[in-house]
Write a structure and sequence with these properties.
Length: 330
Amino acid sequence: MRFHVVVGAGPTGTSTALLLAESGDRVRLVSRRGGGPAHPLIELVAADATDAARLTELTEGATTLFNCAMPAYDRWPTDWPPLAGALLTAAERTGAGYVMLGNVYGYGPIAGSMTPDLPMAPTTRKGRVRATMWLDALAAHDAGRVRVTEVRASDYLGAGSASLYSLAVAPRVVAGEAAAYPGDHDAPTSWTYTGDVARVLVAASRDERAWGRAWHVPSTSEASARELTVRLADVAGAPAPQLARMSAEEVAAAGRANSIMAEISEMLYLFEQPLILDASLTEQTFGIGPTPLDDALIETVKGMSPSAQWRPGPPARGDIRSRPDALAAE
């Protein structure tokens, strides 16, 4: 029986742990609070993953170490480096294959489709954090100290998913309320279903071709924000949606009152142009295709809980009010 360690008990970490356990593998799911699903093959552990010695102890004997962790969105420059360093150290010390969950921030602005072999060229603070994490891990891989791969996703859909859309728009649309969202609402966008993230993470961990490079998660849809919102309302049986465009000035104003929203401003380029991930190599190599959009949206709606929804009030202009740790994973 293979043994794996998954760090981070958010939607992607939980999905990954369950997928591994359902295949018969033993899993240790590590998070700050020690939460996670009840499964006979999943051991839930509360630990500080920035403690390299403790994380190494927990990873001893593991085939794979999965990094599905996510510090609070407004603390990436301070909180990611020690966490990423501890994860890489634990993988090097134990010999576990290191599978990282990443995103597209490290690429910087790209005209056209994003391919996983693009160089790191970040133009933002958060992009530089993600690029450094990958380049440090890749250097360790190239030096023969560890086997590493990274799976990159776009904007999330799925139960409990933490993306600006799933937090700021989806609950209001389902409740029949007006919502606001930045950027070009007609620009095609790759939407990532959290279950597909888990499938690619697990597939990459089991395939020798995966090591030493990055992979993109196949998109459940490339709908624009407007098209996605119409489809979400239809799936949820909600009234025709009202989606207003949130200007850069409004995002900045919201950021002055909310530290999470303050971090959106530097990432607005992602909302203002097409954002398309080319995942053809993933599909060809691992035989993994995307989950149908309606399935992802149905799960998104079913996964909504009072703590994840917006409180009643005027139309949203970007104030994340119900989750102070929004855009952060466990």
